[in-house]
């Protein structure tokens, strides 16, 4: 709610952020694009690694399929050679047996071969024992008997070795085209799988699968019991829909991998190669982790170095400048030191200029203050000290005199017949007469500790510290003569000039006494001087006694 009421609150918070945090924020802002660029580059490299792995899987299954096709082609060539000679070869069973054994040993992947005659049903020679299966009811045998081309079987499991394989058969025909004999070769699918592993990648699994999803062979974990993939499996559906392709899906063993597959030409058999995604991206993932660690370490080191540099190069000069400014503000110094940072020089110059203006204004204020003090302590008409100033200094001198045991004297003066002078000469002339008397009094006390003050109206009073009655009377007589010597005309008096009367009193102050008693004595002496005819000095001898001089 406070931020809503004060829109500048958020910007104010940012202004209160320290320089160290600003440096860290700046580093993060600079490092963020670099980190993002490296992150995007590494992700692209990872995707490219996956694409390259899939391409190599595709190449692997092509190589494996080519090897399998070559094996099947070699076996097909064998049966195409044996088929037309089946009858003549069976005429010499021993030679036929030796030939079949030779074929089994020399043709790669062949696990057995046989030749038989056809008399209502298939009869086999002793070479049949190599396969040890009853082939008379096999579909591929029926296909071979009906087709002039060699027929390829689905997989089968041999009874003597329990190993999976396929068979290729070709029939010998008479002049009418009817089959009279049959030649067949069996291929070991496990051997086919193992023979093609060398073309694969590290960590690659290879399967040979028939059209029904049965696993005929696999590597690197061979099995003698074929596995069958569910008909709804995405991998099997994709393989059945296309002759080749790639995808990521659960494999025959249920493990999700990247897969590439291809169909062996002329058969429903598919060769399938797969690799675990973790194996495919392990190297790039390790590189990503190493890069992230390096970036984090570099960012941490750069931040620490930047904070240290900011403290030494920015914060420390600012602190020094702040100390100089505070010292100047406390009048501990009249100027600032050299700016340690060039960019701070305008601030320093601005502060120096402000400091000069402040000094000028301070001096002006002091002058005004002195004038105000003078106005508060002096009389506006005469320029002498006023009654308040006299009262304060009189009290101080009384205490000082009591402490030091020295006398204190008062001389009270009154301009004679001043009201008559004022009425005759006018108020302006009367004021000028008072100023003349005041100037004379000021000259009389100049250079002494004595204080001359206007006591009120036409009355003046002089404070004489350290003076006894005799010295005070002497001072008063000098002043009386000086007033008469001013020669101010007063036509309504016998002397026809302005004069003044004086009352003098002196005492040694005591802390138990009252300065008012001394003031009353001087006032009484002045009254006596007026009563005795004016233009004279009268000294008080005691609280109720005055002596005419």
TrEMBL record:
<dbReference type="InterPro" id="IPR003660">
    <property type="entry name" value="HAMP_dom"/>
</dbReference>
<dbReference type="InterPro" id="IPR050469">
    <property type="entry name" value="Diguanylate_Cyclase"/>
</dbReference>
<dbReference type="InterPro" id="IPR029787">
    <property type="entry name" value="Nucleotide_cyclase"/>
</dbReference>
<dbReference type="GO" id="GO:0007165">
    <property type="term" value="P:signal transduction"/>
</dbReference>
<keyword id="KW-0812">Transmembrane</keyword>
<protein>
    <recommendedName>
        <fullName>diguanylate cyclase</fullName>
        <ecNumber>2.7.7.65</ecNumber>
    </recommendedName>
</protein>
<dbReference type="GO" id="GO:0005886">
    <property type="term" value="C:plasma membrane"/>
</dbReference>
<dbReference type="Pfam" id="PF00990">
    <property type="entry name" value="GGDEF"/>
</dbReference>
<feature type="domain" description="HAMP">
    <location>
        <begin position="312"/>
        <end position="363"/>
    </location>
</feature>
<dbReference type="InterPro" id="IPR043128">
    <property type="entry name" value="Rev_trsase/Diguanyl_cyclase"/>
</dbReference>
<dbReference type="GO" id="GO:1902201">
    <property type="term" value="P:negative regulation of bacterial-type flagellum-dependent cell motility"/>
</dbReference>
<feature type="domain" description="GGDEF">
    <location>
        <begin position="406"/>
        <end position="542"/>
    </location>
</feature>
<dbReference type="InterPro" id="IPR000160">
    <property type="entry name" value="GGDEF_dom"/>
</dbReference>
<keyword id="KW-1133">Transmembrane helix</keyword>
<dbReference type="GO" id="GO:0052621">
    <property type="term" value="F:diguanylate cyclase activity"/>
</dbReference>
<keyword id="KW-0472">Membrane</keyword>
<feature type="transmembrane region" description="Helical">
    <location>
        <begin position="288"/>
        <end position="310"/>
    </location>
</feature>
<dbReference type="GO" id="GO:0043709">
    <property type="term" value="P:cell adhesion involved in single-species biofilm formation"/>
</dbReference>
